[in-house]
Design goal:
This protein is mostly helical and 187 residues long. Helix content is 61%, strand content 0%. Helix 8 runs parallel beside helix 10.
């Protein structure tokens, strides 16, 4: 297999995230979101959060984009399932990146995200949590009151003041307020 073939395989594997559902929402009666949808909004949040906090926005975006790549192999197992199933994420990352010309870079990003020791990794983790909070707000607005119980525990895991401030705004902002922007109604 040549280098380009291996890259194409990696890209196809990343595409699997579009067909991998996030599983935790089943406990709230169902909310459909793929891992790829989650990753995309997490990357946009991470980039925005980095711009506000002075972190390297490119690095934060990269961390957000790769943080759930192993789920193409391991699936997105919710916290209850994880009590009973041991996920070997390190093996998944090794297998995913083996023979890939830029595999070391992908592995380093995932390791940095997991260690959560750099300002960029902290911002990426906060972006991940903020994305969940936005989903919870959407669920709550559909009338599902059970989602409200997930808000405080999620907010308590935020690490930066900026992310905590954004969480407060998420908690009260109607999810469709942006629709009125530009017509004078939202100003």
């Amino acid at each position: 297999m040549d280098e380009r073939d291996r890259i194409v395989d990696f890209l196809n594997e990343a595409g699997m995230l579009a067909r991998t559902p996030r599983s935790g929402f089943a406990h709230l009666g169902g909310y459909a979101q793929s891992v790829a949808e989650h990753v995309h909004r997490t990357a946009v949040i991470g980039m925005s959060l980095a711009w506000r906090t002075g972190a390297d926005s490119g690095r934060v975006s990269q961390l957000c984009l790769v943080h759930d790549l192993p789920e193409a192999r391991t699936l997105d197992l919710h916290h209850l399932a994880q009590r009973y199933v041991k996920i070997d994420e390190a093996r998944a990352v090794d297998d995913m990146t083996r023979g890939l010309v830029f595999g070391d870079q992908v592995r380093a990003l995932i390791d940095e995200y997991e260690a959560c020791a750099t300002p960029e990794a902290i911002a990426a983790h906060d972006a991940d949590l903020l994305e969940l909070l936005l989903c919870l707000r959407e669920i709550i607005e559909t009338g599902n009151t059970r989602a409200a119980a997930w808000v405080a525990p999620t907010e308590s895991r935020l690490r930066t003041d900026e992310a905590r401030a954004w969480a407060g705004a998420v908690r009260v902002a109607p999810v469709d307020r942006w629709c009125a922007m530009g017509d004078g109604a939202g100003s």
